[in-house]
Write a structure and sequence with these properties.
The structure is a homodimer of 473-residue chains. The first copy, chain A, is an alpha/beta fold and 473 residues long. The first copy, chain A, is 42% helix and 17% strand.
């Protein structure tokens, strides 16, 4: 059994060498991409491009070897072809480098046995040279606090959600989905084949990492099953851990092996393992972000009872079904609460004073605030959800609808500040071009006010159901 | 048992009177909304606004009573308060009107017994006067071919999908979702309480309607259970029928009663009933549109075997799981096909030549066309899906990504023309603002070329799984 290591050094290097940066414009150079990404992202330390042909890039010299670099090198990103990697490891060891991220692929994940041999070779040389390896066959690290990114366009806001990912594409998607919805990251690790540092190492590290409050993970399999299980158990006792475990089908498991050498394992075994931890299992990257958003923005609920309010009879039926299916209870409104609603509105005609509450038309901002105030006082519910059904307003024009929905969203932002109950907003049914654009703008605005926003009835229900179940354990 | 009636007259009136049109600017008038919607939508027949206070609207006279209208009146839309509706029915009977749509609510759906009495009253008077009733408590009819709409902004394209909806909001959402994705409608009926014409009447009518090729329905319950079951059985033998049956939970069933008086019935009974028909059950409005799109744009597949191609290793694993879960088979690539792929590309490094196929970088349009051509010839698969994972491209900038994805989508449009296999496109993982906008633009463009496009891995899998299962029956 390996011992837990503090991996802080991976995320805060003072200098990075990038092997495989080409200055020849006609050639697509992955090394150049990493160089440009770090430059654009604003990495504050030293960046050293490396290529045996030498030359210059943006006025800076390209070093022919890592050994030629004048200053110290903490970290290397390798984008050179696989056959040249053993030499790179030896040069790195000679230079006193602490870690190498191999973007390079063509190792354990390909069918050719040479790939597996080469992978064993570089890992052995790295171990001998005291170097830790990220990958190979991965996009590497995103850490806004350390100025690290594999994409210059990623959001630069540092947050407190970490992600371990056995897919660079899914990591990129998670970063985009999270940051566009107000969820920011401490550390994201695209770990590829995990030939040295693997999912267990990262899980153990993140459990202790004070910059990380929530851990998410996209997993195709685990290389050290028992160790990973223990790591997951400890991690999920310490902080919320949200998992997307894939490769559950035969074809999915086969794809996982070709992708990152991961042995998916039987889904029954995984279900059994996960049930012995507090980890929360989800079905997609978006659902993982949904649950993380609840933990990020909502206080712990006392139970699983929720009261829902918004506009639309058909929407209310859909909400009631979805929330019930997700294991949440919709308590009937108390007589006190019904009386209060009857005071606020002249009549129930066109409205439904059950749970979910259909306000139809709420008439004035004051009345809307009064309703939310009354619901906040409704002690039979542990949580509150407000929903907006964008394309459900049948009779009014797109223009009126935009004005009206904008007003409603503004009121929600204002009202949210005074609520004591854990509250969420569900924006749903935005299909038309204008409502889709409005819903996305609105979601970003609400998110910026620290509100957990879900983009469909079923995803809102699933996320809040999982959130409540976690707190019931 | 009522006898089936040809309801064409509902959808092609030559003249419509709207009761409850107010010209007073300070008063929100639902009648005025219907008047404006029909005007904007381009209803070609005569429109007569009615209000006991008289006046003028857009220069046209407001009639004090239906009886004062000089010409014939085929159809009335009522937006007057419930207590005045019995008189309206009598006036309509005197005028020889054939049908009334009651937008008016405050009938069977409210808790007050007076509502139920009033509903029985208007239905009795209508029957006596030879008038059929749509509603009450609903948005009514959308029929582009007849110039009918309850919203002037709806798409004016006539299509061949019908919808029966026990919710106006969900009908509006379905119309927006469908038309924005290239699915157009013959007739949409928001039917409310269904006090006279109910879901069985509409289902029987649409079964025979030559303008309708696909029937969709949002159902909270059925008023004449046995008759509806027989209607559904016949309808689903005649054409694809896609159902969203809600009120499956206790709270959902209660909401349904308050919404449109529908008794939801036990979900087990519904499952049993549906299993004796060819109707396809879905879980949301969007999923209903997904399945309808497959029927609209794809020829019948010979079986449930699908080959998937696109870019991204992590995406491939997600696709494999979701498609397997949805009951689709992913046959392994034949040796012939693998050899063909090896001819097209120099190496499998970075690619995965399994099913799903990960092309990573397809290098040239010619190579992409060659791949699709080879897959079209792959006889172990009955269907083909191409996927685009928008936010998965980790290393390239948003700008490059836009250019690149646009090119890819253009190629898909071109390639689709030559494919013989039923083929679909899955656009997924678009979270960043730029990719979300691009994905929606792309979806509309592909849809305009007659391609079935699904906006997530799981929804694509579900829709194609349901589509294949229907054809296997």
């Amino acid at each position: 059994m390996k011992k837990t290591e503090n991996l802080d050094f991976l995320f805060h290097p003072r200098s990075i060498a990038i092997a495989g940066v080409s200055d020849r414009a006609e050639k697509f150079s992955f090394g150049l991409k990493f160089f440009e990404a770090l430059t654009q992202f604003g990495f504050a330390g030293k960046l050293y491009p490396v290529n045996p042909t030498g030359g210059k890039i943006n006025g800076a010299a390209i070093y022919k070897s890592v050994k030629d670099i004048p200053g110290e090198v903490d970290f290397i990103i390798s984008a050179i072809p696989a056959p040249f990697t053993p030499q790179l490891v030896d040069d790195a060891a000679a230079k006193g480098v602490r870690a190498i991220h191999f973007f390079t692929s063509g190792f354990g994940e390909i069918e050719d046995a040479d790939g597996k041999r080469l992978q064993a070779e570089i890992i052995a040389r790295a171990e001998k040279g005291g170097i830790r390896v990220v990958g190979p066959n991965c996009l590497g690290l995103y850490c806004p606090a350390g100025g690290l990114s594999f994409n210059g366009d990623f959001d630069k806001t540092a947050g407190r959600v970490a992600m371990i990912s056995q897919s660079g594409g899914n990591a990129a998607h998670c970063i985009h989905d999270g940051t566009s919805r107000g969820l920011y990251f401490s550390k994201v690790i695209s770990m590829g084949n995990g030939a040295d540092l693997n999912e267990a190492d990262y899980m153990e590290y993140l459990t202790r990492d004070t910059e990380t409050k929530i851990i998410t993970a996209y997993l195709e399999g685990a290389r050290e099953g028992e160790r990973f299980f223990r790591a997951l158990q400890s991690a999920s006792e310490a902080k919320p851990v949200i998992i997307l475990k894939v490769g559950t089908s035969g074809p999915g498991a086969q794809a996982a092996v070709s992708h990152t050498t991961a042995l998916a394992g039987s889904d029954q075994i995984w279900e059994g393992v996960l049930s012995q931890t507090r980890a929360i299992r989800t079905g997609s990257i978006e659902e993982m972000v949904d649950v993380a958003l609840a933990f990020e923005h909502m206080p712990a609920p006392a139970g699983n009872r929720i009261v829902i309010v918004g506009i639309g009879g058909g929407a209310s039926v859909l909400l009631a079904d979805a929330f019930s299916l997700a294991g949440l209870e919709l308590p009937p409104l108390s007589d006190v609460l019904r009386r209060r609603l009857m005071e606020i509105f002249p009549s129930e005609a066109g409205r439904i004073f059950k749970n979910p509450i259909d306000l139809n038309h709420f008439e004035t901002p004051e009345k809307f605030f009064s309703v939310l105030g009354a619901l906040d006082q409704f002690h039979e519910a542990d949580m509150l959800a407000v929903h907006v059904a964008f394309d459900h307003f049948g009779l009014i024009s797109s223009q009126e609808k935009e004005f009206w929905v904008d007003t409603f969203l503004e009121l929600i932002c204002q009202a949210k500040k005074n609520l004591k109950k854990p509250a969420a907003v569900i924006l749903h049914s935005f299909s038309s071009a204008s409502m889709n654009a409005l819903a996305h703008r609105a979601a970003r605005k609400l998110a910026a006010s620290g509100i957990a926003v879900f983009p469909s009835v079923s995803r809102g229900a699933l996320a809040l159901g999982r959130f409540a179940r976690y707190h019931a354990k």
